[in-house]
Design goal:
Blueprint lengths: L1 E2 L2 H19 L3 H5 L8 H5 L2 H32 L2 E11 L3 E7 L6 H14 L6 E5 L4 E6 L2 H13 L10 H8 L12 H9 L12 E8 L16 H11 L2 E6 L5 H7 L4 E3 L4 H9 L8 E10 L2 H22 L1
Parallel strand pairs: 3-4, 3-6, 6-7, 7-8
Antiparallel strand pairs: 1-2, 2-9, 4-5
Length: 327
């Protein structure tokens, strides 16, 4: 127990110690007083009644002194403003990780609207982390640097407004999606989703944060007559999302197997509509479930409960003792 006004306690206990010392010193008046001779004092002091009265008086005196000292000490401690550390457990909403997964062309106006929406949202984020993944690049790793995310999302959204004959367009598009083709591999929507899912850190406990993946693009990236193999199956992507604790949401420009993945992870699935912002608001309004986080908050404040309680008990006992003695 800490004392806010500790000098009060020092002065108070110094006064108490001085009073006790003065009480124990032999009285000058006692030394100067003349005693009168009495007959048969030895016989009187041996009487049981006398011994009983002396014991009762001595005990009552000791109890009274102890209670007075205790009452005084409690008053001094209460006056010195004792303080203690108070703890409060507060429940809060878990933070969220959002990975934007773009399978549509970056020059598409819908993609620009999608990226602009989240650039505006990122300005208001607090503990949330946001990332961006294209079909073959991690454009923005999952980050809490919202200013960096806003700039990168704005730069990517700007690609839709650059004319096709602008010399800057090819280089800036390569920064978003690398123009790579393979002889023995063709990417699928499941491959893109798997790449996006790997953007969530594995060392973070999945239950501590809400994790959302929002996909924008076609439901299937492969042509109907495509014979080259893909890397991931839909079930593998569903299993990966379950391991990482991610809810997959999808807004698609064409039907495909993405719907099954979204439904299996309890996400929302819909074709891209004329009001994309409203659809995104609906997705953001239904984040995945997560455990409530609790935070222990400590603060120091006055805590006079103990000395006041001791003082009240001592005062009550002192009153009862005086009543008993009078009887």
């Amino acid at each position: 127990m800490a004392l806010s006004w500790w000098p009060v306690a020092v002065v108070g206990f110094a006064c108490l110690a001085g009073a006790l010392v003065l009480a124990l010193l032999p009285s000058t008046r006692q030394r100067q007083r003349q005693r009168r001779p009495l007959a048969n004092t030895a016989r009187l002091t041996r009487l049981p009644e006398y011994a009983r009265i002396v014991r009762a008086r001595t005990m009552s005196m000791l109890v009274t002194i102890a209670l007075l000292v205790l009452l005084f000490a409690a008053a001094v401690l209460a006056g010195a403003r004792p303080s203690g550390l108070w703890w409060s457990v507060q429940a809060g909403e878990p933070a969220e990780d959002i990975m934007l997964c773009v399978g549509a062309p970056v020059t598409d106006p819908v993609t620009a609207e999608f990226l602009t929406y989240f650039a505006e949202q990122a300005r208001t984020y607090g503990p949330e982390r946001i990332g961006l993944t294209s079909t073959n690049r991690r454009v923005i790793p999952l980050t809490r640097d919202h200013q960096f995310a806003v700039e990168k999302l704005g730069d990517a959204a700007e690609l839709a407004t650059i004319p096709d004959d602008d010399a800057r367009l090819p280089a800036r598009m390569r920064a978003f999606t690398a123009p790579v083709t393979y002889v023995d591999y063709a990417a699928s929507a499941a491959d893109v989703l798997a790449l996006c899912l790997t953007g969530f850190p594995t060392d973070d406990p999945a239950g501590d944060r809400r994790r959302s993946l929002i996909y924008l693009g076609p439901g299937d990236l492969r042509a109907p007559d495509e014979t080259r193999p893909a890397l991931f199956t839909d079930q593998q992507v569903i299993d990966l999302a379950g391991e990482r604790g991610v809810q997959v949401n999808a807004l698609v420009s064409s039907p495909g197997s993405v719907k099954d993945i979204a439904q299996a992870t309890f996400g929302r699935y819909a074709p891209i509509g004329p009001d994309l912002a409203t659809q995104l608001d609906g997705i953001r309004a239904h984040p995945p479930d997560a455990e409530q986080t609790t935070t222990a908050v400590g603060f120091r404040g006055d805590d006079p409960t103990l000395p006041l309680a001791v003082g009240v008990v001592a005062a009550v006992l002192l009153c009862l003792a005086l009543v008993v003695l009078r009887r």
